[in-house]
Amino acid sequence: MSRLVAFSLAAAMTGSVCPGWALEFTADRMTKIDGRTAKAVVYYRDTMWRIEHHALSPVNVSIVRKDKQVVWLLLSRMKHFKTVPYSADQDLLVTEHLDGEVSREAIGTEQREGHPTVLYEVVTKQGERTDIYYQWLATDIHFPMKLAKKDGSWIVEYQHVKLRAVSDYLFQLPVNFQPLEEFEKPTPAEPAERKM
Q1: How far is it, in rounded angstroms, from Cα 31 to Cα 66?
Q2: Which CATH code of 3.40.1550.10, 3.40.50.720, 2.50.20.10, 3.40.1170.60 fits the domain covering 21-174?
Q3: CB within 8 A of 43, min separation 6: which ones?
Q4: Coil, strand, or helix at residue 8?
Q5: How far lies 148's CA from each of 67, 68, 117, 120, 152, in Å?
Q6: Which of 13, 1, 4, 14 is closest to 139 using CA atoms?
Q7: Distance, CA of 48 to CA of 63 (rounded, Å)
Q8: Residues facing 28 on adjacent strands
Q9: What is the reported pLDDT for 81?
Q10: What is the distance between the alpha carbons of residues 87 and 180, in angstroms, rounded to a whole number?
Q11: pLDDT category of residue 8 using cuts at 50, 70 and 90
Q12: Under DSSP, is residue 190 helix (H, G, I), strand (E, B) or coil?
């Protein structure tokens, strides 16, 4: 009985028992796209995630709500938010297998962030387009620590990954933020002055 309990707890912590288990984690994320590097902190739960950007830009937090099919872009200094439609392009690639995966070949092993990883070459196909990736998959937590296009044009790397429950609060709009759309509406034209 104690082995079953221990297995259940371990499986629940890694989310590896079955697809019904929700993946929840926090991590630091570094992306490099066409030579530009960006850092962020990610809070993730299967159908929603929050990205706190470390860039100097008006939007410093993005909250993706796949369950509601929206993305909220928070402009914290102004206490405003902008709502944009959710797109599958915004999904984080944090599962063991990639969409459209047609082949996977193990080509090595490596330690990353204290986790044993297997380095895979993964081929995906979307319509006529074929992409080749390198994926460093942590075998102890079943999490992709790093994913890179083979041509080096795109890399995403996770550090300080902690599998743990993430508060609902992080995926809600702050109560004192106003929709930016209200301030973008054209103002009614001023009545024309009478000619004298």
Answers
A1: 21
A2: 2.50.20.10
A3: 26, 49, 50, 52, 166, 170, 171
A4: helix
A5: 28, 29, 15, 11, 6
A6: 14
A7: 7
A8: 41, 159
A9: 95
A10: 20
A11: very low
A12: coil
Beta pairing, strands 80-85 & 178-179:
parallel
Distance of alpha carbon 126 from alpha carbon 92, whole angstroms: 17
Beta bridge partners of 146: 136, 157
Please tell me the pTM assigned to this model: 0.79
Average pLDDT in the 167-185 region? 83
- 137-169: per-residue pLDDT in tens? 999 999 999 999 999 999 999 999 999 999 999
* Cα–Cα distance for residue pair 134/119, rounded to 1 Å: 7
